[in-house]
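Thread title: Can someone regenerate the structure for this chain?

I was given the following input by a collaborator and told the matching structure tokens would be attached. They weren't. Posting the sequence so someone can regenerate them.
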Amino acid sequence: MANFEIGRRSAGALNPQGGRGGHLATVEDIIERVQSRNKEVTVSTIYRILDSFRSANILSFIYHPDTGKCYYDITVAEHHHLFDGKSIEDYADPELSQLIREYLEQVTLKKNV
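Best answer:
Regenerated them for you:
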């Protein structure tokens, strides 16, 4: 059965399998792509830029529960991720998002009581 999670911000040039054309990329994929264009860009610089992009909500960080890999996502619209094996699919459903928000609000309220 597929797992899912909510993502709010994201975009990319590599897919989860490392190919071009997707919107998700591992940090390794990003480092390889950047350094193939400019070998002078250090790994620490790439990490700092990615962290800055996450802080600015330009990218989100996605953890794949089945593979243990982490991905950066550049899709900026609110959406969910469906995980099935190694594949990750975007799933946009405003009603599902609202149900999840309401559930999380209830859980938070119960914890604070």
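The longest helix spans residues 94-111.
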